[in-house]
């Protein structure tokens, strides 16, 4: 599992909240809408902390004040990407078609950006805009992603080991080498450990727990 992989298809929003007077009020809904990940760098807020994420105006509110609290213009975004993006918007209609910043609702993110391990690669002009504007391969961020990927691998290996132990208990019962009661006790302990592992993997995936 690589939690940083960009989606290959455009996302359809599933929530339709009422319009609030403050855009910050949408933050918890946006967290659910975008599976707890920054829409630009795909960093899960479960790793960096909910407080380090905010609401991004895809069309900057300085230029589009009428969209300041329009839900379709709002995205879940880490503070690093939000700060780097700032007031960015292509300066002409022609540049809007060639130098837009990809977002998961209007574009296929994978068409423009992809991960090679912990590093982001640009696949289009728009991907290069995102890569440069947001500094997606900042060395500290890449190092953090490498740590996350290594941790995910460890937990997935541990899950596989627990599943093997659970399967072995079943085989021993069927072979008459372990009583049902003893096997049930062992399986209960294994299931408790599996629940912990699944919780950690869910945290790494970005989904709100």
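-> sequence recovered:
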């Amino acid at each position: 599992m690589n939690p940083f992989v960009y989606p290959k298809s455009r996302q359809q929003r599933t929530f339709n909240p009422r319009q609030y007077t403050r855009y910050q009020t949408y933050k918890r809904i946006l967290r659910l809408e975008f599976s707890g990940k920054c829409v630009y760098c795909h960093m899960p807020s479960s790793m960096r902390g909910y407080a380090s994420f905010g609401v991004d105006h895809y069309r900057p509110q300085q230029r589009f004040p009428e969209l300041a609290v329009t839900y379709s213009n709002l995205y879940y975004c880490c503070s690093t990407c939000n700060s780097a993006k700032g007031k960015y918007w292509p300066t002409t209609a022609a540049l809007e078609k060639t130098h837009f910043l990809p977002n998961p609702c209007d574009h296929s993110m994978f068409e423009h950006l992809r991960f090679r391990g912990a590093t982001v690669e640009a696949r289009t002009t728009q991907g290069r805009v995102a890569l440069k504007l947001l500094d997606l391969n900042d060395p500290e961020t890449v190092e953090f992603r490498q740590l996350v990927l290594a941790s995910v691998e460890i937990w997935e290996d541990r899950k596989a080991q627990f599943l093997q132990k659970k399967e072995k208990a079943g085989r021993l019962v069927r072979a008459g080498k372990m009583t049902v009661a003893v096997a049930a006790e062992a399986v209960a302990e294994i299931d408790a450990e599996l629940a912990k592992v699944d919780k950690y993997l869910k945290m790494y995936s970005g989904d709100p727990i």
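The longest strand covers residues 53-57.
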